[in-house]
Write a structure and sequence with these properties.
It contains six helices and five strands, in the order βαβαβαβαβαα. With about 160 residues, it is of the alpha/beta class. The protein has one domain: 3-Layer(aba) Sandwich (Rossmann fold). A five-stranded parallel beta sheet has the order 3-2-1-4-5. The N and C termini lie far apart (about 40 Å). Bound molecules: adenosine-5'-diphosphate.
């Protein structure tokens, strides 16, 4: 059974993430989405909120998909999940340097787990959680970047009524 881990902050989960998840779930037997606590990124949503969002959004995606919170070294998490691969999405050149370095260091930590890169649909490639939050904070529409339910989550959060 081929298991891959797709790790991320998902703050919030975007149509870009969901496209990578759809493509990933299609090529492995089981895809484990690892939602990291990542306090260094000062997320807008708590890990519990991000878990709920990701679980809700992947419910309709075909395949064997698990959503698991983690707060450890990625390679330890992947090993504990029985994964043979780490899945990452690549957007533009800007992602490359960071991803290249991380994949290289992870390879040193555990050479049995491969990092595999997927590209989202061309139309979804510019989407980044960070920009979604910025646009929403300034009152712009985020409808083309996230699902309607996530639009609501972000709106509720910004209104302070979550
Ligand atoms: P991280 O905090 O690990 O960067 P993110 O939630 O920002 O987590 O992203 C998780 C993964 O999804 C990363 O590999 C990132 O490059 C990828 N990703 C995010 N948005 C897109 C997109 N629009 N197209 C393709 N990959 C994406």
């Amino acid at each position: 059974m081929k298991i891959a881990v797709y790790p991320g902050t998902f703050d919030p989960v975007t149509l870009g993430h969901l496209d990578i998840i759809r493509r990933g779930a299609h090529i492995v037997d089981k895809l484990v989405i690892g939602v990291t606590t990542n306090p260094s990124k000062e997320p807008m949503f708590t890990v519990a909120e991000r878990m709920t969002m990701v679980k809700r959004e992947v419910a309709g995606i075909p395949g064997n998909i698990d959503v698991v919170e983690f707060d450890s070294l990625l390679m330890d998490f992947a090993e504990a999940q029985g994964a043979e691969a780490i899945l990452r999405g690549l957007r533009a050149v800007a992602d490359f340097e960071y991803e290249f370095q991380m994949a290289g260091m992870n390879q040193k930590l555990n050479d049995n787990i491969e990092t595999v890169f997927l590209m989202a649909d061309v139309s979804l490639q510019p989407i980044a959680s960070k920009l979604v939050k910025e646009i929403a904070r300034y009152g712009g529409s985020i409808d083309s970047f996230v699902t309607p339910a996530v639009v609501e989550d972000v709106r509720r959060h910004l209104n302070g009524s979550h």
